[in-house]
Amino acid sequence: MLFNRLGSSELLVSEIGLGCMSLGTEEGKAVKLIHEALDRGVNFLDTADLYDEGRNEELVGKAVRGRRSDVIIATKVGNRRVPGQEGWVWDPSKAYIKSAVKDSLRRLGTDYIDLYQLHGGTIDDPIDETIEAFEELKQEGLIRYYGISSIRPNVIREYAKRSNIVSVMSQYSILDRRPEEEVLDLLKEQGISLIARGPVARGILSGSGEAKAEKGYLDYSKDELLSLLKQVEEHADGMDVSHLAIRYALSHAAVACTIPGASSLDQLLHNLAAGETEPLSPQVVQRVQAISRAKRYEQHR
């Protein structure tokens, strides 16, 4: 497993991490999957207080007990549940962030979070207040670094300009190349890393992709996805499609880590095998880009 520095931080993260949202709620199974990932060189685990109403953080906490110092835990904040109501409300206020971190620490069974991320955000948020909350949490030693999870270029630009974020988490794959338009080069220039989520696009970019293409993906229709998959296979030079997809997400210099999810041991091991493959050549990257869409942000500029 290769490791990359996360932005300007001291954190060295495995180039393939584990997105924990897909682990489910069964403790034995989830803990086993996390242990397998750690034993195979993964050191970056991404969760959120929102996932399974906090249960996901609890499972991560149980899994890293006894090996906390070997693991980089990333979690997220900003979606507040209202007692007695369905769903959640967006709350990037300083008061909520500084309150919510205590609940995450309790569920994770740790006294610090390596990377605390704002779980969304809009240009209309009280951004300076939000930044102040994260900076105070750093000073208090409750978090080591902070970042944001966002696909919105205007929001990313504001945090890159006004804060000390070390990372931005965004959906990025062959099927969703929006970060290439405005985000990746900006982050590279600012010394901020991208954490790429969704590299295999809900499993569409995999050997079983045909079965998962039924509902389409973003503005790709089923037929367009099937055609693209066939072309990707033709250009893969024998490489497994999901390995190619994971390697594509790692191909830009701004990307430090990609976090495919896994709900089974076979899926986890298959994803991690991408770490044993060579980085894509510029020629392969260009061929993949030629057959896929250079998607653009239609909103949230």
From TrEMBL:
Tree of life domain: Bacteria
The NADP-dependent oxidoreductase domain, residue ranges: 15-292
Protein name: Oxidoreductase
Record-linked Pfam families: Aldo_ket_red
Classification via Gene3D superfamilies: NADP-dependent oxidoreductase domain
Matching PANTHER family: D-THREO-ALDOSE 1-DEHYDROGENASE, NADP-DEPENDENT OXIDOREDUCTASE DOMAIN-CONTAINING PROTEIN
